[in-house]
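Our collaborator T.R. sent over the components below with a one-line note: 'Predict the complex.' Nothing else. No constraints on interfaces, no templates requested, no preferences about which chain binds where. So this is a plain run: every listed entity goes in together, and whatever single assembly comes back becomes the starting point for the next discussion.
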Amino acid sequence: MAPSSDTDWQKHMGDDTVNEMACQELVEVITDYLEGTLPKSDRARFDAHLATCPGCREYLEQMRALIRLSGSLTAKSIEPATRDSLLRAFRRWRDSQTSV
Amino acid sequence: MTLRIIGISGGDLRGQNTESYSSARRKPARGLSTGALTDRETPPGIACHVPVTNGRYKSAVAVKTGDRASEAELIDRLRCGDQATFTWLIDTYSPSLKRLALAFVSLEAVAEEVVQETWLAVLTGIGRFEGRSSLKTWLFKILTNRAKTRAVREKRTVSFSELEPEDGDGRALSPERFLPPDHPSFPGHWSTSPHPWSAVAEQAVLRRETMEVLRRGLENLPRSQRTVVMLRDVEGWPAHEVCAALELSEANQRVLLHRGRSRLRAILETYFAEDA
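Returned assembly:
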């Protein structure tokens, strides 16, 4: 997002301008950032960009919300009939163990 | 079967449900009596010294977190024929096993069979299991081997190591979302800042519908992305376990996770934009 305040503007036009991370780059390295695999120098650029960009802060929070929501999805388990048949198989197995 | 052993007082528990097993085991021995060793009792030659009920939950949690000592207890109980332990294992791991099976085979019924075969293989193999890998790793190794065999029979791709065309061009967002590279002041910056929804995404009032949108989005992801996102974010596996189960490099695992998550975020974005 384009910086709005004077302070943001100065940060954008500072010495780090060349090296500054753009929003388009940030959204592509965000997984590496969250995974902790982003190289140290890029991590610093990432953090520096976040500090000045509310759009990217929101994007990061959206990713985090997505991950939390995914974590609360539940998986479908096996059919009750499969479960019953496994428990029967277990009892047969146990009986064959003890009768050895 | 009925073994008659002097000195073991098990009582005849035949026909009772498993939950009574633990309480029966805590009964004080009646000295030198002759009792029938029932099918609920310890197989000969295996010391089953572990209290079955009280420690179960604790060790079950420990197994999930990879505590080897507690895992050994659990394996011990399984070898002893404790049905409650087996029930706990199948209830805990079958959803993940089925999900992983669906990464290789297309039909849910086939995935179900693969899971069933896996548990049967666990029963025949548990006696030889030496604990060199974790129980979980061993379990998922059995599953992937079987699922791959089925996939080959179905003539489906079993490899995750190559990115597929359906995995997309690799962009998290379309270039139109950003100012062009030749923009005088802010190349590559948002052309329009993302519509904010992170603060409302988890609100209870929207939750059921949000989860449904997410579930559908996940189901529609390309196979390799879906599998990685499911194992990582839904099942909560660490990266290295996903890499091992799918024989993926760390880098490719991250690429698939990134593309999958980026697509899901975009789906939620659309959903919350419609909602607004």
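Summary for T.R.: Residues 1-59 of chain B have pLDDT under 50 and may be disordered.
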